[in-house]
Amino acid sequence: MSLSRKLMIDGEQTVETTRTHVKVLFVPFLILLVLAVAAGFLVPRVGDKGDGVVGWIVAAVAAVLLIWGVLLPFLKWYLWTYTLTTKRLLEQKGILTRTGRVIPLSRVNDVAYEKNLNDRLLGCGTLIIHDASEQAGLQLRDIPRIEAFHRTVSNLVFEQHGTARNDESV
């Protein structure tokens, strides 16, 4: 899911769009497996007794748990994106209400990353960006291929600062 063209500034190009690592979907996947096994076992067992209402109740409870424990976390993961352009870094998230934060690359002071042990095994990490505003730094959690993304952001920040310095000297 790339940044919409109507949200881009003149001369801006998308460099990379990413979302958090798929490891955040591990628990919803386990919930899906448990629900499928439990519903597959319980519905035929209790559905044979009586008029089948209990089987429908079990199926309805499983469907609600499926929506709450699997579908909503998947949509949250799918719709939470980080987009790096040639001029700014954008974070967009939300299912019904979309929110976002934009940091112009020319205002970035520091770009760092953190990786704990399981992040190192999975090849992801947290990118921390501090800018020249009073807000706290932006933490992009569980970014896949964190070193490459960090390198790309750093290179673009250096280019922006070099361009800004050249513009000021004129």
Describe the 3D structure.
The structure is a single chain. This protein has 4 helices and 7 strands. Helix 1 (26-47) packs antiparallel against helix 2 (53-79). The chain is of the alpha+beta class. The chain has helices spanning 26-47, 53-79, 117-122, 146-168, and strands spanning 14-19, 81-85, 88-93, 99-104, 108-114, 124-131, 138-144. Helices cover 46% and strands 26% of the residues. A hairpin with a 2-residue loop joins strand 2 and strand 3 (88-93). The longest helix has 27 residues, at 53-79.
Q: Low-confidence spans: pLDDT under 50, at least 5 residues?
A: none
User: How many helical stretches?
Assistant: 4
Q: Which term fits the overall shape? A: elongated
Order of helices and strands: EHHEEEEHEEH
Helix content: 40-55%
Q: Give the radius of gyration.
A: 22 Å
Widest sheet: strand ordering: 1-2-3-4
Total E-strand runs = 7
Query: What characterizes the major β-sheet?
Result: 4 strands, antiparallel
Q: Average pLDDT across residues?
A: 87
Distance between the termini: 39 Å
- Multimerization state: single chain
> What class, by secondary structure content?
alpha+beta
Share of β-strand residues:
25-35%
